[in-house]
Amino acid sequence: MKLNKDCVRNLLLYIEKQELGKHIYKSELENVFGKEFNYSPEEIEYATRKLKEANFIHANGSFENGSWIDYGISEITWDGHQFLDNIRDNKVWKIVKKSASKLSSISLTLMSKIAWSVIENHYIIDGSE
């Protein structure tokens, strides 16, 4: 399955908005993200699994036949916050996505590095927008 990078970003933004200690479950994500962004349950689960694998979130789930029957996300990790902070700004995200689209595939780690480069080159060094 292809990783939907917009879904990854939107998940992190959603998790960050939640109260400390609140667990976010599969049904909530499917309801919110299905309605608001039209993401499929598979896109949401896959993005969640990859965020967990990247150590960007703390999540636990019950597996059956290679899929999570149910899962819960408790919080974003330090690495997840760093990634989100690099891709949070909509202007930066658009540039990162445009740069990433030139390649057939790109890791979340590399996207974070591209975002940092965009921030450094466009906002810190010359202060332009």
List keywords for this structure.
129 residues; alpha+beta; 3-stranded antiparallel sheet; 3 strands
Brief synopsis:
The protein has 129 residues and is of the alpha+beta class. Helices cover 60% and strands 16% of the residues.
Write up this protein.
The chain is an alpha+beta fold and 129 residues long. The chain contains 6 helices and 3 strands. A 3-stranded antiparallel β-sheet has the order 1-3-2. A hairpin with a 2-residue loop joins strand 2 (57-64) and strand 3 (67-76). Helix 1 (5-17) crosses helix 3 (41-53) and helix 5 (90-100) packs across helix 6 (108-125). The longest helix is centred in the last third of the chain and has 18 residues, at 108-125. The termini are far apart.
Mean pLDDT reading: 87
Strand content: 15-25%
Count the DSSP helices. 6
Order of helices and strands: HEHHEEHHH
For the biggest sheet, the summary is: 3 strands, antiparallel
Task: Indicate the topology.
Elements: H1 5-17, E1 24-25, H2 26-37, H3 41-53, E2 57-64, E3 67-76, H4 78-87, H5 90-100, H6 108-125
Antiparallel strand pairs: 1-3, 2-3
